[in-house]
Each structure stands twice: as C-alpha cells, then as structure tokens.
Amino acid sequence: MPQGEPAGDSAGEGDRPHPPLRRPTTGYGIPEDLETPEPVARPDRRIIQATFISALILVVLGVATILLLNRYVYSPESVAGSYLEAVARGDAETALNLLNPDDIEDNNLEGLSDSVLKNAANLPVDIQLVSSERRADGTVEARYSYRIGSNQQQTTFLLQDSGPYWLLFHTWRLTDTALPTVDVEVTGAESVQINGSDVDLRHSNTLPLLYPATYSFGYRGTYMTADSEQLDVTDDSQPDNVVRLNLKATPELAREVSRQVNASLDGCAQQTVLAPADCPFAVENVNQINGDVSWKIIKYPEVTLRRTDNGWTMQSARGRAEATGSETDIVTAKVGRFSLGSDFEYSATVRVSGERVIVSPEF
After folding, report:
1. pTM (whole model) above 0.85
2. Torsions phi, psi of 269, nearest 5?
3. Which of these, 88, 106, 99, 101, lies nearest to 203 by C-alpha position?
4. 174, 80 contact by CB (below 8 A)
5. How many CB atoms lie under 10 A from the CB of residue 75?
6. pLDDT tens per residue across span 49-68
7. Cα dihedral 104, 110, 111, 115 sign
8. Residue 125 and residue 89: Cα distance in Å, rounded?
9. Are 210 and 87 in contact (CB under 8 A)?
10. Digit-coded pLDDT (tens) for 179-236
11. With 0-12 CB in 10 A as exposed, 13-18 as middle and 19+ as buried, what is 171?
12. Contact of 231 with 181, CB cutoff 8 Å
C-alpha cells in the first residue's frame, strides 16, 4: 500500500459496485445499435407503364382478331365459299351440311353420295367471289363465279345471320335453298349409273343433286346398255331436268332368252301326251295310242327382241316339234308306229331385273 493514503479509503473504494454501462446513443437518445427498418419499396413507374401498354396491346390485338375472324372466317361469304369448295373436292356430306336444303327427306337421296359427286365429269374450279351485298332485312347476297368444264358460270347465294357464337363471332347459314332435281327415264331398268355409281330407281326416278357439277348418266349391264348422257347442274333455280336413256339389248340378252325358250320347249317335250299342257305344240291322232308319246324338238324358234314401253318382247317365231309312238288302227286293228309333226309359233315378254331375265311365254 503506498504510504500517505488512508487505509479505510482504499478498502471502501474496492468494495463499491461499478455503475452500469451505458449504450451509445444518437443525438436523439436512440441507441445506435438498434437496426433501422428498411424503407418500403414502391413500384417502378416504368413497370406500371409497360404493363398497361402490354395489356392495351393485347386488348387491341384481341379486338382485331375478332374483327378479322368475323370478316374472313365467320363471314357470310366464307360460308358460301366453303360450300363451293366442298363440292369442288367431292365432299357431299360437308356440302349438304352447309347447304341444309329444304324438304329432301322423302326424296331418293342416292344421288347425293360422295362417290357420285367425286366422280362427276366436271366440278367447279377457279372459284372467285364476285360481289357481296347486304340487304335491308339483314341477309346477304354473295355471288361467286367458277368454271365448269369450259363454261364460266355464276351462282348467287342468300345467307342469313343465325346468331352469335361464343357471344363474339357471327354465324351465317345458307337460306332459301333447294336442290335441283333430275328425272331419269330409263324404261325397263330399275337402276341407273350416275358418274359410274349404281343408283336404285325403284323408290323414285326423281333425284336431287348437288350443284354445280356435270353429271353423267348411263347404264351398262350384262343384258342391257345405254349410251351416256351428260347434264350440267349449275343452279338451284334450274327448271326440272329430264334425262332419257335409250336402252339397247346386248347379245347376251338374246342368248339368255333363247336359252330359256329352248329349256321351256325341252320341258314340254318331256310330256308323254299328244297335247302337252301349257305348250305351243300338239298333234291329233284318231287311232288308239298305245303307251306313251315321245316328243322331239326339230326346230327351235329364233329369238328376235323388240323394245316396248315396259321392257322387251320376243317377236313371234316359228318352230317345229315331232311326236312319235305306237298306235292301233281303229279300222283294221293293225298295230304300228306313228310320226306326226307340229309347227308352232312362240312369242314372249321379257323383263330384266338387275342381273335376272324373266321370260313369260305367250301362246
């Protein structure tokens, strides 16, 4: 202990507690070690402007897209053009759905198939919109030009607004549509070939057809044939068309009729009486006939066919049959052989049903 210092003072100084340490403060009395909160970030004005402009561009593009779709995709002209394009590629189903013709359910619809339309001699090419006019009642007249074969044609379609699609797009449909029809007159046949496809006429010989197209009508079968006739069908306002086919017998028909006639006569010759039933020949013999009579066809009739309103007829032709057998003379009672000839005529009506020939004798 250094001399000169009071002992009591030294001991008391060592025993006193130290005062608490003070934290450094700012000039405002706020502790310096407290973290100052970071300032809240505010949106950049440039980002807001870019977002607004982008949204505005999207709205403009959306409106423009809707306007363009209504102008080129959902326009009345596009519906009429789509119909013509469907016809041009031979798509009868799509064309019918677009045209939606009136009152065809009860008609013979076999001429409205893809196979008939696709194989048409001529289908529309160079399809062009000529004019489009909106009427006071809201309907639209669309006139298209096209070429069928070497002929330039035009057709006007009437279209009606059928309501919005998704509340954004206009939809249009062809209206006041009717299909042109053709009456096919082919007496003696139950079908006809249109563009190479068989079409049954038993239900009706009046056929509605899609247009515009060039149709070929003909008939080619085993027993009958007809030269092809062509018809341009270009407008639903065409008057009723009539196609008349002149059927001609093929050599095979005459051969089939001859075969059936000869078979009929051979059947008659199987009978063992002087006058075979339902046959064109017979003989008389006053003597007593012993046993069966034998018949033989000496000459078969030649077949010549003639066209009629209802089919065909076999013109009357001569033939000869001969009967032989045993007889007993009624005067002398002598037994002997007899031989008697019978000249006859044979005619028949002939009907062709598909690949079947029906010969009905007339005598």
Report:
1. no
2. -70, -10
3. 106
4. yes
5. 19
6. 667 676 666 655 554 444 44
7. positive
8. 10
9. yes
10. 889 999 988 788 999 999 999 998 899 999 999 999 999 999 999 999 999 999 987 6
11. middle
12. no
